[in-house]
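Worked Example 4.2. Consider the chain below.
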Amino acid sequence: MGRSSFMNKSWFHSFEVLASLATVTMATKRPLSVTETIEVGQQPPHKKIRIQTTKNATTSGKLQQALNVLETISPQNSKELLDVLVKIADELVLTDCQLPEIHEAVHKLIELFRQERDGDTTIRVMILGLLADLSEVRISEVVNTLIDEIIGVLKYEKSQKVIAQGLSSLHKIGLNNLKILPTMHLTKIAHFAQQQLSSESHHTQKNALMVLAAFVALSDAKKGVIDTIGHYADSQDSGVRAQSLRSILCLGERGAVLSPSLYQRAVDAMQDDYECVRQQALQLVLQLGITHPEHMIVCGTAEDDEEMRLIDAAFSKVCGALCDLSIQIRVQAAEHLGEMTMVGPEFLHQTLDKKLMSNLRRKKTAHERGAQLVASGEWSSGKRWADDAPQEHLDAKTISLIASGACGALVHGLEDEFMEVRIATVDSMCKLALKHPDFAVTCLDFLVDMFNDEIEEVRLKAIYSLTAIARHIVLREDQLEIMLSSLEDFSVEVREGLHLMLGACRVSTQACLLMVVQKLLDVLAKYPQDKLSAFGCMRKVGQKHPHLCMAVTSHLLQDHPFFDSAERDVEDPSYLCILILLFNAAASLVPIISLFPDVTLKHYAYLRDAMPSLVPPLPIEGASTKKPIDDLGSSNNSREYLETMLAHINDIFSIPTQERRVPLLKTAQDNLKRLGEIDPEMLGTANFLETFLAAQIQIEQLQSCTTSQHSRAPLKESLAQLVRNCLKLQHIFSGLTYSDMLLVKQICLRASALHLVLVVRDRSQSALGPCQMLLQTASDISNFLDDKQDFQPDELTTELLNQLASIVDPKPGKVFREILPLVQKPSVVRMPPPNVNIKMCEANILEPCPQMSQDNVIKVTAGLIAALPFVAEIDNLQESQKNDMRIKIKYPDQHLHTVVPKLSDFKKIMTEQGAHETNVKLRTTILLSHSVWTEASSVEIMLCLAVRPGTDLELCKPAKILFAPKPVRRGI
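Applying the procedure from the previous section yields the following structure tokens:
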């Protein structure tokens, strides 16, 4: 009883220790402290400054404490020992562990492993998993010790379960530390794995194959290791067969040359009963076909003795996988077809033909058939009809479609019952058509048929695929009928995609052109919200068909040769579509202008000013001849002007007096802003430099406030504007170089220090937030300098980091006193060099229209909800910024409502070249509601980035709408 009570107490005590360790690992809300770590050597001290949280005395050595808990448990009590190991593995944090602690932990765990050699295998498996977790410290001494110790104990291990886990741990250790491991240890791991291939355990064989493929030297792979691995493709276990093929692929990814002799083994594996094996075999067939496309192999029976290219044979096998029972295999095969662009045209065209024909057999000439008959010694007796017919003649009824190779493969994919297979097939057809223009013409009818698919994603994929191959095809009238019937689709994305496709395609006749124009006008009357998309489509159609447009100009304008027709409304969307079509056609064929009536010429002068991006410049008297902003100058001239301006700014900084310096800098700031408006290619660069210069001007003006008292209200507003500019530099711009990032971090550090000093001197608000922001900014720039050893900060940044590093307890008052002399010292951050790759995130609200219309008032009963469609285009939006996007609705009573759009509302903007990577369209619905108003008032809607709680960066000018909540109407 005494021993049992003691064991229970020790067990309870061990859980108390682990619970305390778990609470220590959680992040606390104490202020950050500053510690200094300086290495003696040639490097400057500022490169090794780290600002980190204070370590409690109980935190140091927590790994040692956790291992001491294991020593209090009896080795015979395997259940408690296993529970403690699981607890340690779940709560182990290696960031605060020192090198001696990790070394001791490795030795203690290995010692415990040896003690449990004859005990429970689960404990030994758990210990090996813990040893693999210790390798995440990425210290070469620890990793080398781990590999030696694990291989040493596994040599005497008898349990295959433990050996398999040991191989898995070695694989994890090797992958985590591949850059720091010497070749000797990698060779040792590979040699040990090769020895374990002879094991009878399938699990051990599988892990050994995985380790061997990851770490064997490529020189050894040429000496038969690939053949050894390929031998296990005939194993009895499906997992070993799949891992064997996966290991061969892994060696190919590492750079080993895969021999074409592996092709037959991969083809045989494609008939395996298990899906995992067929997946790897299909991938291997693709890889061999792409690697050795021109290698000739023998196909068919030995009598035929027919040779074909390896890429053609592999293409046929991948086509056959489109009839697999597994949907994953069919999707994989459909995707792989698009990667095999070097296939021969005869194989490619046969994928669209379901008829068997010759089943890809080579027809023999009459001379060859006669020679074969002479060699056989048999002659036709003439007693039976057609007894000398060619032996290659095949009856289509006797052959299954499943075994027909490439025949109709893509048609099978397009008719598959699963959406994923159809999408992958359409995508592969597009890739193949881009490389083979003749195939693009053949597959056009099949892609047009997919416009009638029941799934919207399939229809969109077919539309975008046809847009991509539009330069290779000319549309016929029957094909246009199917396409134009899809224009009435309820989905706005399908309609906009069809507008893009029709603008990219060419039509063959006048009737086709009139059909396109008439259908677009009919659909526009039904969906007036598609106005901008339809205008863009008409612009492209006019540019591509000037001669056809000239033939139908009088018909479209309804111009009678003898009678004057009534003047049409220039604001009518249908009439605007026709004018945009003809004006863009006239830009390529000037004689069309002679067919325009006088009223059309007057409308051109108005539209040229109202829509310069849609209406091109034409030689018409009285119209504006100015070019759009996009055509002004060249990027080389803009860059020369920018470099000259930066040189002048650096000269301005050398002026001693602030009264003369600041007005000149503000003028340069206005010039940079104007440059971004004139040249769109320099928009990001010019705005980045303008924001950077604005932050410098604000810092210089606020530095004078550190020595004298000023009014609180302007000071608070100036500080908020400075913080906003720093956040813009950090979050709005992309494409920055490391040098630009360092300059941004330096100016943010100065702004944070100045913010803290002014807040402490003001004494009207808490300084804890600015102090935390300063320490976090300093920690960020210090970590940046540790990672990028080649960059040197300026003198003030180094002094600030060193001063912060010397503070033991960083309270706001103490930090203020230490950094005040440095903040009061005048110092300027040099301007960044011109970087034309900088892009600025900006938005353009399309719907509701940014211009407020007095006629369009949204009326709703007070207290109820009005749904308003919202559409905006966002340029240069990074993937990480989508979660920070916000739609802000500001009512006249200053009440703010924030809408968080769903990630599914963001769609990439499609172009004729494909989807744009960073330009997206946000399409959602916002809800408006308010109490009773006496009259309609404007509501502002804007797009913002929520970069910090309470701080939003506006991406565009607000769109204003008139909103009128009416009182509830009472019954009679």
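The radius of gyration is 37 Å. Residues 521 and 740 are 50 Å apart (CA to CA). Compare this with Example 4.1 before moving on.
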